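Dear colleague,

Thank you for sharing your sequence with our group. We've completed the structure prediction you requested, and as agreed, I am returning the results in plain text so they can be pasted directly into your records. Please verify that the sequence below matches your submission; if there's any discrepancy, let me know and we will rerun it promptly.
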Amino acid sequence: MDKSIQVSIVSPVYKAEKFIHKLVSEIQKVMAEMEVTYEIILVDDRSPDNSWEKMVELSKLFGEVKSVRLSRNFGQHPAIMAGLSLAKGEWIVVMDCDLQDQPKEIIKLFHKAQEGFDIVLAQREDRKDSFLKKLSSKLFSIIYSYLTETKFDNSIANFGIYNKKVIHQVNEMNDYIKSFPLFVNWVGFTSTYIKVEHAERDSGKSSYTFSKLLSLAFNTIISFSNKPLKLFVKFGLLISLCSFAFGVYTIIRYFTGHILVLGYSSLMVSIWFLFGILITVIGVVGIYIGKIFDQSKGRASFIIDKKINYGE
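Please find the predicted structure tokens below.
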């Protein structure tokens, strides 16, 4: 570990050609004020615009700006993990590139960390996201907290400062599905949070569509929790108990003369209902088996294509 670098700033980049220069400029101002040695690691998640070209320009102008390009689009969290694998600082800041995470807040995070915390998370006081994104984030936090029996705060995302030992443990996690904030939540260590100002997106709109958010939430929950399987076991036992009770009730009514001809409709409804439950359970089990299959292949969650300012 290079002790000369005190702070590494890691930011995944996607469709950021219009504001990547401003991001770097703002970070440089903050680092100059803090008077620390630093590096800025920008990870291009194979953005379809000219983000990479802008990153190359910045790396040629400033030696502390290190640009990394992935071989294809892997997603935000694998891009973060790629940056973390290259970070050399004593403290690592993770932040989005769209300037909603404001560089000026790094000072507060850093000073709080010096009080003895390994992790200082940024809690967004007033999120400047769309209603749909805030709603989906809230629903995800509720569902995830229930299924994993942990507390997940949707006002906290990637933005924060982390001691190198925390990042080392995060890098050691070889889960095929990557979710940086959930990894941080899992590894533990001494942590706290401070309230920060959340800004409007500098330009453009988020690349996370509703379908992408839904897919990310689904994959993350399946990856971090097996509670859906336990819930279906309980539900199956409940159905069996109800079926047994209904069967006993039907037999009693038959022998007491209340039922002369068993109903075709009730029989068919029962068959369709139970088969529906059975198929659903098999589907959920199949999803978990699929995730196990993906994990067992041991494929890399990201592949680095190019690196600039790494002495190569």
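Summary note from our side: The chain is about 50% helix and 15% strand.

Kind regards,
the structure core
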